[in-house]
Amino acid sequence: MLRTVNRVLLGLLGLGLFASGGGVLLGGLDLQRRWGFGMPGWWPFVGPDDLLLGAEGRTRWRDEGWWWPTVIAVLAVLLVLLLWWLLAQRGHRLDRVLVQSEDGAAARLDGRTLEDAIEEEARALNGVSQAQVRLSGRRTAPTARVQLLLEPYAEPARTLGQLSRETLAHARDSAGLDRLPSKVRLREARHRARRTA
Length: 197
Description:
By secondary structure, the protein is α+β, with helices and mostly antiparallel strands. Helices cover about 45% and strands about 20% of the residues. α6 (about 155-175) links the parallel β4 (about 140-150) and β5 (about 180-190). The mean pLDDT is about 80.
């Protein structure tokens, strides 16, 4: 849903900027006169000597009592919407996962509990120093983001295979999920070089 909203908003914003920028460019380069076509009567910028917003347009409502409260209210609403949109980009943490049982009944599993279980089992893998798991997505179709900090002696390919075949498979099966898409990030722990005598 959020991805679709982002695409629609970016598309509309891009289309508006392209149309207004193209119109200003046509007026600034005086292409209407050179190429022999006209701009609509409402378009304010038709020649290189015209201003996009003249003095009358800038000061028309300045002395009206409603002008500044309206400007402040519109800017405040715009700020709140932009902050909401920015926070929505981060992706929320999943608080509950719906677990389907064989008899058709559904139960709710605390998302943090499932994250903790995955983290604990991932830490037990050979060569894993730290593990961090975050569930996001829908309650019926969660997605796991896993970050592992590996010891210097760890084998990343082997650790990733164990994580996928064992740890994430256990979590998927215990929650009764058909699938558990996961993104895994592996980092190596920093260590000092050993001195040899």
